[in-house]
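The freezer alarm interrupted the setup, so I double-checked each line after restarting. Inputs confirmed:
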Amino acid sequence: MNLPKKVKIVEVGPRDGFQNVKDFIETKDKIEIIKKMVDAGAKHIEITSFVHPKWVPQMKDAKEVLEEVKDCIGDREVELIALVPNKYGALKAKEAGAHTITYVISASEAHNKANVNRTIEESFKELEDIQKELGDVKFRLALATTFGCPFNEKVPTSRIIEMAKRGLSMGADKILLADTIGSASPLKVKNIISEITKEMSPEHFVTHFHDTRGMGLANTLVALNENITYFESAVGGLGGCPFAPGAAGNIATEDLVNMLHSMSIETDIDLNKTGEVIDLIREKVKSPIVSHMASLCKEQ
Amino acid sequence: MNLPKKVKIVEVGPRDGFQNVKDFIETKDKIEIIKKMVDAGAKHIEITSFVHPKWVPQMKDAKEVLEEVKDCIGDREVELIALVPNKYGALKAKEAGAHTITYVISASEAHNKANVNRTIEESFKELEDIQKELGDVKFRLALATTFGCPFNEKVPTSRIIEMAKRGLSMGADKILLADTIGSASPLKVKNIISEITKEMSPEHFVTHFHDTRGMGLANTLVALNENITYFESAVGGLGGCPFAPGAAGNIATEDLVNMLHSMSIETDIDLNKTGEVIDLIREKVKSPIVSHMASLCKEQ
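Predicted 3D structure, all chains:
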């Protein structure tokens, strides 16, 4: 098995996790949870999304969350990332002090249309506009539906490669390969990532797996074997459907970290302290915790 | 990736799953569930355990369940397997018409003592006695704690190899490599199975993974890559602790089958019909269903 000594993790719970929670989470609770994640070792956090509150009311406090967390963190080296759907969001994220923005383009035309009401080409043009407007903004390009589209549009790997190359040529810090609907199989992950990394170095890529069908960690293992060393996950496995217990969301940070540690792969995350974050989430967030390690973190 | 075209699955829900359910499941309900599993394509079922009802009251109807299911199945080719802890259980299982028995010896002395109050050597002697008494009984030797012991006893792979060889020399049909406490990491699975299969053909082995820490499918993937083609799983992911939702038990048959099918690996199992088994379990069994695919089976 081809395993690295250390990997990086982006904690996406405060963005991808929280945005799927129906009941509003108080701003002060969000901030407290994020601070506890930093205490648990998180070095890269997708902290919020500068999306119109009409579409995602949960993110209406994006500015306040980002500004407050930035103040609290002080000079600790933590990358605060904000997702933005468009130029307006990018401007707001920069104003509030985001270190990095995540800009999403779906590799499926149908999904991109449904998600941001643009063609893929229009989305790239908007990204160019963002760069013109914001100057040297550090950005990550997320390629949604890399491993499967909810509208069953076939996404050829050549398109993923082309989009990734275009993103890198525009200066993207990282390219995210996102399994938006949790449908990737290990074989698909192997085939797609090995094709991509024939043409570009694996160090440019981050995987974003959902655990909808329970294959999240198996897919991560395959990505590790293909030399990917950067992963996104959400504490507590947040991001699933609150009405279907067991229908998990993002891969859970604690499940991911436990698997990595059990193979002697270092992360910056302390599993015991992650257990404390989960306790706080249970107290403050009305969403079931569906990860496997949630109750076992403190026993490791 | 080194993947087979077809694999075999032993459905262990009626034994390993049910025995962890606190409330008694009515005998007629057990039988109905097992019959539905057969309808869903199960060809190998660990149907019950001939253990003393004082230790596992849930299994007090072992004889009745086995006899009734055998009658219902008629001449359909389904292997009915019964777990036995000792010679007495083996005799009862044979009398009731089990096709195959599973006999468990733990690779950890401490766990074997706790489980059956015998040394490993005494357990092998009992197996010899069973063979003398029962003649040409078809048996599977399950090596509990192959990948980790709850008492932290270190189990050298050389001991697993020695025990497996001894089992095969005694005529074992299969050797089960069991991750009794769900602590195996993919790296551990790789290391142990690759060592074992240097000395014996992979076709002798069946893996039995628990999903306690969410690594069950990742571990299965590694085993597949090491040429294992025979897996145990429990419908609904039964076998977990009923007081800790998310603390999963056996890997869920539906999660396993979905992963295999999504990589074009054939099984005998129909995912849609497995969804019907799960509906019945929800109705009849007081235990949470914690698998990922439980609510998605019928959408595949």
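Quick read of the result. Chain A touches chain B at residues 1, 3, 183, 185-188, 190, 211-215, 217-218, 220-222, 244-248, 252, 255, 258-259, 262-264, 288-296 (CB under 8 Å).
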